[in-house]
Amino acid sequence: MTTGGVTSVQNIRFARSADGVGIAYAVHGSGPPLVIDKSWLSHLQFDWQSPVWRHYLVELGRVATVIRYDERGYGMSDRDVSDHSLEARVADLEAVADDAGIERFALLAMAQGGPVAIEYAARHPERLTRLVFYGSFAGDQLATTPEDVELYETIGAMIRVGWSRPTSEFRRVFTKMMIPDGTEEQMRWIDDLQQVAVDVETAMLARSHRLVTDSSARLSELDLPTLVLHSRGDRAQPYQRGRDLAARISGARLVALESNNHIVLADEAAWPVFLQEVTQFLAPDRLSVAPTEVEDVASLLSPRERDILRLAAQGHDNNAIATELVLSVRTVERHFQNVYTKLGLQGRNARTAAVARLLARPSP
Q1: Domain final position from 251, 269, 288
Q2: What is the CATH number of the domain that holds 318?
Q3: Do residues 11 and 26 lie in contact, with contact meaning Cβ atoms separated by under 8 Å?
Q4: Parallel, antiparallel, or unpaired: how do β-strands 2-3 and 6-7 relate?
Q5: By residue range, what is the domain housing residue 336?
Q6: Are residues 282 and 349 in the same domain?
Q7: Does residue 310 sit in the same domain as residue 278?
Q8: In terms of domains, do 175 and 62 share one?
Q9: Number of domains, the chain
Q10: CA-CA distance, 226 to 251, in Å (whole number)?
């Protein structure tokens, strides 16, 4: 059953990691595969109707087959786990990709999923089509100054004391870091997610492993299309971390989201920016999938962009197209640039390739 082109239910499955730990993952949507390493706080079932995450799941499911999973010790994955090392977490991602039966896919790393995605990309470049980082980083840094040590210990004490309490005063501190501009309903959901997703012992153990996890040395090895999105006012992961990622990955593109939230919410002006950037970035993967599996190329373009391509196919140059459509030549050029971006084309032959793809689409 589908609603608005999006599967209305998710298919939950289980993969077995290298050390035998069961990793829960969910599949929904249609189109080329997009694996999401959401990391840390997640619960596949609880997230499905979330007032914080639902818009991501719905909209990304319109352009891709979304495969997301709960990390070891979290959500619906096996809970009684002691190994939260980078090696184990990379093995979990490997297990999910293999169990899902996908040969090549785009990988979206959120927050603390960054180091895992970087390591996976360095080890398995042949498996990835492209890489997206959202509110993420290459590695945490150990506390070095007395102030850093004090802050680290204070946060640890808050987790130990407040995580399991029936009231949410302590958990609300973390919620405020993630969505400071959220509504009370959204904040209550994050408060609850913290308890639903993980117990206090696992949260503390995983946190200690993450503080010594750093994949920065691998960044120079990455050689695939990369998009980095990060909120300027992110309090959970400072914007500078996203900027550093983009600066150290060859050819990476950085998009600054005008938001204070670690998780951009549906009613923010930054949300359509995020969605457009990710949709356009994934467009080449959609075009590489058989026409029976996704909408044809025309569905990616606006009516005006299709008109311009059709005229180009008839041999019109930019001046003639501008005259025919009563536009300025500059506007026609801008439309062509938008087309090239959506179709993942560049260089001298981009115009010819765009026309060829439009003409090659199946007849209605």
Answers
A1: 288
A2: 1.10.10.10
A3: yes
A4: antiparallel
A5: 297-359
A6: no
A7: no
A8: yes
A9: 2
A10: 7
| Closest alpha carbon to 218 in 254, 238, 245 | 245
Got the DSSP string for 104-140? SEEEEEEGGGHHHHHHHHHH-GGGEEEEEEES--SB-
Residue 364 falls inside a structural domain: no
249 in the same domain as 332: no
Residue 234 in contact with residue 260, Cβ under 8 Å? yes
Give pTM, 2 decimals.
Answer: 0.77
pLDDT by 10s per residue, the chain, length 364: 333 444 468 999 999 999 999 999 999 998 899 999 987 789 999 999 999 999 999 999 998 999 999 999 999 999 999 999 999 999 999 999 999 999 899 999 999 999 999 999 999 999 999 999 999 999 866 556 677 677 777 878 888 887 878 888 888 988 999 999 999 999 999 999 999 999 989 988 888 888 788 999 999 999 999 999 999 999 989 999 999 999 999 999 999 999 999 999 999 999 999 999 999 999 888 776 544 444 456 667 888 888 998 898 888 999 999 999 999 999 999 888 888 877 777 666 678 777 777 765 544 4
Same domain for 102 and 68? yes
Q: Which long-range contacts (CB under 8 A, 24 or more apart) does 89-92 make?
A: 89/116, 90/116, 90/119, 90/120, 90/123, 91/17, 91/18, 91/19, 92/15, 92/17, 92/21, 92/23
